[in-house]
Amino acid sequence: MMLSVEDYKVYYYTSDGAVKAVDGVSLKVKKGHSIGVIGESGCGKSTLAFGMLNLIPRPGKIAGGKIFLDNIDLLSLSPEEFRKDIRWKRISMVFQGAMNALNPVYKVGYQLLEPFLDHLGTEGDEEKVAKSLELVGLDREVMNRYPHELSGGMKQRAVIAMALILNPSLVIADEPTTALDVIVQAQIMNLFKKLKRALDISFIFITHDLSIEAEVAEDIYVMYAGKIVEKGSNFEIYKNPKHPYTQMLLAATPRLHEEKKLEFIPGIPPDLISPPEGCRFHPRCPHAMSICKQKEPRLIEIEGNHWAACHLLR
Amino acid sequence: MNVQDIKESLRDFWREYRRIKSGMAGLILLLIFIFFTFLGPMFTAFPEAGPRWRDTTYWMDNPRAASPSWVNMFSSQKLCKHTILEEYQVENGITIFKYDYPYDEPPSDIILYLEGVGKCNLTIERPDGEIIPLMDELTLYSGENRFVLAASQEVKKNVRDFAIKREGASAYSPFMNPLLPIFSKENLLSEEAIPLKGEYLLKIGGEIKGGRAIFSGSVFGVLGTDAGKRDLFAGIIGGAKAAFIVGFLAAPIAVIIGIFFGLINGYTKGVKSEGMLMVNDFAYNLPLLPILIVISYTYGITIIKFALIYALLAWGTTARVSRSIALQIKEQQYVEAAKAQGASSARILLKHMLPAVMPYAFAQIALAIPGVILLEASISFLGLGDPTIATWGQILNDAQRANATLGGLWWWVIPPGLAIFFVAFTFFLVGTSLDTILNPKLRVR
Amino acid sequence: MIGRIIVSRILRAFVLLVIVVLFLSYVFGTLAEERLSSQVLEEIGVELRSNPSYPLLSNEEKLEFKTNLINLKRTQYGLDKPFFTRVMQNALNVITLHFGDALVLKSRSGSKSVSAIILEALPRTVILFTTGSLIGILIGLFLGLKAAQKSGTIFDRFISGFAILSRSLPMWWLGMLFIVAFSYYLKIFPSGGYISLPPPSGIRYFLDFLYHLALPLLTVVMVLFGSIAYLSRNLVLGTLQEDYITVARAKGVPEKRVLYGHVLRSTAPPLITLSAVSLFGSFGGALISEIVFNWPGMGRLYWTALEANDHSVLLGNTFVTAFIYIVGIAILDITYGLLDPRIRSGERR
C-alpha cells in the first residue's frame, strides 16, 4: 500500500469553538491507482488535501491519526524534513481555481523550475520544464510567458505540469475543473486520463462533481461532514450506492441520456462545530430512523470492497 | 434596497462594529470630543476664547507665560497662584480685599482696578497683625482706575521702610521683588526669605463703587497661559470648534464629490469618460500644501473657506476607487437587467451603484478627517490660518514665534498638539474599524 | 509598451505642472500688481518732491506731467500690458526657472536672486528628507513584514497601534516635543540650525552636522516608519492569503523565499505606490518640521518668506515644491508600471 491514512483528524480551533473539518478519515491508495473523494463544499475535502501536504492554515491543527506514505510516518517528520523530502517531491497538488495558483509576477517557466532548487538543490533543467509543458499539451514557449497571458484552460494545464515536475508518486487534484467551462473541463479530464495511462502516478481526485470521478478514479470515497460515509470501487458506487447521501448525490447529477427529474438534496451542510448527534446526515436523510439520531453508524462491509456507514444496512 | 433592508444591514453592521475594540474606543473618544467642543466652554472662565483670541482686553488680567496651577502638586515649593479677587467687603467705610496666601513664592505684583471718586489710602494687614502702609493718597477719578503697586515708587519705599524697621538695614537688591517683604516672615530683604502664609487684608480707606484686585502669580489655570496672557485651556476648547467644523465639513464634501465623480466616470463611456479620467488624474496628483499656502497668503482664509477649498481639491483619491467600483458593478447582471427595463442612467446610478459604494464612502470619510485636520493645523501653524478664531495650529504658531520650545514652556507646546493628535487619532480608530469591516482581506481569524 | 507608459506619465506631469504654474502666476500676478502699483505711486511721489521745477508749474501742467510720469513708469514695469499677457509672461519665466529677484530676502552669499536663495535651501531639505525616508522605509518595511507574518499577535497589534499613532501626529509638533524633551530638559541635542557657530572644520564639521541632523531626522523617521509599517503589513497580509502563496509553500519553497521572494515581489507594485504616497504626504510635514528645528531648508524658507512678506521667494519656493511633488509622482507611476508585468502588457487598469 503506497498511501495509508488512518483515522485522520483535523480541527480548526476558532473563538467560536473547534471546527471538526476532518473527523476520523481513513483511506488507502495503491501504487498506480487513483481514488476520488466526493462531497459537498465545506465537508472537509480541501482540509484533507492540505493535511496531506502538511499545509493546514491557522488555526487548524492535526488532532489525531496517522498518514503513511511508502511506510514513512509523515506526521512524525520535522517540518523541514517534510518540506524537503515529501512536499512536491513525493506528493504534489493541483489546486482549485488555477486562476490564482500562479504568481502573477513570475514567469511560468520560473515557477516550474523552482521545485528543483528547493528539493534537489540543482538549477533545474529547462528541458525538463519544456517536456512537462508538452506533456500537458502546452507549447514550450509558455515557459517565457506570464500567467496573465494564458487562458483559464492553459493556466490549469500549467498548474498540472507544475505538479508533475518532480515526478511525484502521488498527486492530489483539488477541484481541478471547477473554475472552468464545460468544454475545457472535458479537455482537462482527458488530459488526466492520458497522464494516468502514461505515468505511474496515483491521483487523489477531490471534487463535488460526480461525473468527473467516473472517468478517472478506481475507488471512490464519499465524504460528509468530515467523515467517510461510503467507500468502494468506482463501479459499485455508481451502480449500487448504499448510503442515502450517495444516492441523493447521484440523483442530483444531470444525465444527458436520461429523461430524469433532477432531485436536489434538501437542507444545508451541517455545522462542524457542533455536528448533529448520532448520524451526521440524519437531519437531511429521508430514511432517518430514531436510532440515527442517537448512535453514529460505523462503516460496515457490504460486499467485496464496498463499505457504508448507515443504520439501514443492518 | 428598501427601508427594511437598510435597517437590517445597519443592525448587522453595528453588531460587527461592536466587536472591534479599537473601533469602540474610537467611538467613545469621538463622543468625548463632541462633548468638549460644545459643552467645553462651560468649564472655563473664558468661554469666548475662540472668537476673542486676538482680543487683548479679554485676557488683560492674566499672567504672562504662567505654568499650569497643578504643577504645585509635584513640587515642595508652592508657586504663587495667580489670583483675581472680584469680591470685597466694606466694613466701617473701609473696603477690604481678602487674599489667601499659602505659597512659597510671593506675588510678582498687585494690580488694582478701582471705580470710585475721591482720595483714600491703601494699606495691607498681614496675618501676624502688622499693618504696612502702601500708599497715602490714592486718587480715584471717574471711570476705571488702574494701580500697579510693584511699579509705584511710593509703595516700594514704604515696603522697604517696613522691612528695615523690622530687621534693620541690610543690602537691598533693586531687582528683587519689591513686594517680597510684605509676604515674608524673616530675612525680608534677601533671597532666603521665609514666607508668611495666611490671610492678608488689603484695605482701601474709603468706599469704592466697584473693582478688583489681582495678585499676579506664576501659575494659573488648568493649562497655564501663553506669552499673550491667554488662558491655554480656554484656547484649546475654543479651538475644538474649528477642528470640528473642518473635520465634519471638509472631509464629507470631498468624499461625496469624489464618489459621484467616480461613479459617473465609471458608468459613462467614450470621450466624456476619458476626459473625466484625465481630470481625475490631475486632481489626484495635486500637491495640496503649496496650493493652499498660496491661496491663503493671497486671499486670506476662514475655516469654512478652507473646508470648501479642500473639498474642491482633494476628491481625487476617492473618485479613483469609486470609479473602479463603478466599473465592476457596471458589468453585473442586474445593471444590464435594469438597462434592459429602460431605467434611466440617473436611476441606475442611484439605485444600484451608489449602494455598492456607500460603505466604502463612510470609511473614507472617517479616514480622510485626520488628514484634513493635520492639513489645517499645518496651514495655521504657518500663520496662514483663519485669523478670526483660535485654532490649535494657530496656538502652536504663536508658540513657535515666541520660541516656546527653547524656553521650555511645555504647557504651551504640548496641549495643542495633543489635542490635534487626539482628534486625528479618534477618527483613525473609527475609520480603520470601518475599513476592517468593509475590506475582508484584512480580517484575520 | 514601456515607452508608452513613460511618455504618457511625463506628458501628464508636464500638463499638471503647467496648470500649477499658470495658477501660481495668476495668483501672484494679482499680488504683484498691487505691489507694483503702489510702488509706482511711491516712486512718483519721491520724484515729484525732489524735482525743484515741479512746484512752479501750473495745475494743468502738473497734472499732465504726473500723468506722463505715471504712464512712463507703468510701461517701465510692464503694467501697461493686459493682465493676461503679464500672467503668461510670468508663467513662462517660472517654467524656465527665471524667478527674478527677491523683494526682501538674501541668500547666505548675499545674492538677491530667488533662484540662488532656493538653491541654497534645496539641498538641505533633500538631505534631511531623503535620509529620513530611506531609513523610515527600510525600518517600516521590515517591521510591516514581520507584523504580517505574526498577524494577530501582540507584536502585530503594537505595530498597527503605533502606526495609527504616528499618522495622527503632526510631524512638526513631534519635533517641538523632541526639542522640549531632548534639547531643553535632557540637553542631549542642539535645539536648531544645521551647524554650530562658529562652524568647526574638517571631520568635526561633518560630525557637528550629523549632531544637528539627529533630532530632525529622528522626527521624520518616527512618523514615516509607522505608516509604512502599517501599509506594508496590510498589503502583505492580503498577499499572504493569495492562493499562489499557498502553492509556493506546497511546492516546498522555504519560508524565507516565500516571504522575500514571492510575497514581496508580488506586493512590490502597490507597496511602492502606497509608500510613495505616504512619503509625499509626509513631505509637507517634513518641510514644516524644518521650521521647528530652524533647519534652513525649503520649509523654513516658507516661514521666512511669509514673515518678510516676500512673495517673489514664496512663488519660487511654491513652484519648486510643487515641481518636486509632481515629478516625484510621475517617476513613481513609471516605476510601478515597470514592476508589475500586468501593467506592462496592457494599459487597462
Structure description:
The complex is a heterotrimer of chains A (314), B (445) and C (349). With 314 residues, chain A is of the alpha/beta class. Chain A has nine helices and twelve strands. Chain A has helices at 45-52, 79-86, 108-120, 126-135, 152-164, 182-198, 210-216, 234-239, 244-251, and strands at residues 3-14, 17-29, 35-38, 60-69, 72-73, 91-94, 170-174, 202-207, 219-224, 227-233, 300-303, 306-308. In chain A, the strands form two sheets. In chain A, strands 6-7-8-3-9-10-12-11 form an eight-stranded mixed sheet, with helices on both faces. A four-stranded antiparallel sheet of chain A has the order 2-1-4-5, with helices on one face. In chain A, strand 11 (300-303) and strand 12 (306-308) form a beta hairpin. The radius of gyration of chain A is 20 Å and the shape is globular. Chain A starts with a strand and ends in a 6-residue tail after the last strand. Chain B is built from twelve helices and eleven strands. Chain B has helices at 3-19, 21-39, 153-167, 232-267, 270-285, 288-299, 303-313, 316-330, 333-340, 345-381, 392-401, 410-438; strands spanning 83-85, 89-91, 94-101, 109-115, 118-125, 131-140, 144-148, 184-186, 194-195, 198-204, 210-216. In chain B, the strands form three sheets. Chain B has a five-stranded antiparallel sheet. In chain B, helix 2 (21-39) crosses helix 12, helix 4 packs parallel to helix 8 (316-330) and helix 11 packs antiparallel against helix 12 (410-438). The longest helix of chain B has 37 residues, at 345-381. Chain B is elongated. Chain C has two domains: 2-95; 114-309, MetI-like (MetI-like fold, Orthogonal Bundle). In chain C, helix 5 packs across helix 7 and helix 7 packs across helix 9 (255-293). The mean pLDDT of chain C is 82. The chains are: A alpha/beta (314), B alpha+beta (445), C mainly alpha (349). Chains in contact: A-C, B-C. Chains B and C meet through helix 5, helix 6, helix 10, helix 11 and helix 12 of B and helix 1, helix 5, helix 6, helix 7 and helix 9 of C.
